[in-house]
Amino acid sequence: MYVRRGIHVHHLLRDSWPFLIGVSLWSGIVVYLNEILELRFLSIPIVPVTTIGIAVSLYLGFKSTSAYSRWWEARQVWGAIITGSRDWGNSVLNLIYADGRKLDPAVRQDLIRRHIAWVHALAFQLRARSRLKAAGATYAFGRRLIFQDADYHQTPESYRRLLSAEEIAEVEATGNIATHLLRRQGDRLRELAEQGFLDSYRHVAMMAMITALFDGQGKCERIKNTPFPRQVANFGLMFTWIFIILLPLAFVDSFEAETALRSMSEEASLDYLLLMIPFTLLISWVFHIMERVSDSTEDPFEGGVADVPISALARTIEIELLEMMGAGDVPDPMQPVDGVLY
Fold first, then answer.
1. Into how many domains does the chain fold?
2. pTM for the full predicted model
3. What pLDDT is stored for residue 187 in this prediction?
4. Which residues form a coiled coil (predicted)?
């Protein structure tokens, strides 16, 4: 997620320069074919192309709104996970007790440690199987910057460091690591209830917290495992390219009509017609960026530069829970990399 106020121009150019070169070449070829080789049949009226442009812009607006809704839902879910984690930490410290009996501090530490492991396991699972192409530098759209270490949830060590060897073997033998970490939390609460450290009311209240965490995990998995409708995404890209390809053909007709109206010489007419190239480039680039913006927010957990910063949010949860326990080995918050928080 970008945390700077604006996106640096060089980030946009890294994604856009092949497109800009391609559109410039195509516009130049259209001018050459029309003016030098006099293939006048290539030009088309501008009114139909304008109509297509209006339709494409409305379609891209719908696509962008739909993609942003997925991104915003993902951010809301992780906001709820942060709130639920704080509630869990507070409850572990204050609801587990028995009159006249002292609870081993390791029990509370174990419950909080396993919860932190669950958060990191969930982030690791959400970052797995990305459809985005890895890049060695920051791009504005469609790429992800990968750090092969646990901090960015690219390796299982992101959650393994918090679990015992027995727990690692048990949960990794299952199909969903995060699910079974929450199940183990429920098992531990049952044991504490049997030992008298939780009455029925407090036991139900803490199980309800686990249910809410299951709900948040399920919402994340729904977003991750349900791809953005490809008919919406692919047709948006297709319509955009149809408009971009037709645009210089329509501009040739429009600029030629203007030169005829002004009775320009042949040389002046060619110079004037060359002006259509930068205008074609500008308009095409605007539509290209509109399409890329929607594409970059389709899948908010892939680790792209515009995605929800789940690694930073997971670190925030870890810091706050460790501080609740009074632990001395609290990690530092995640810092942006080149203006991007992951």
1. 1
2. 0.86
3. 95
4. none
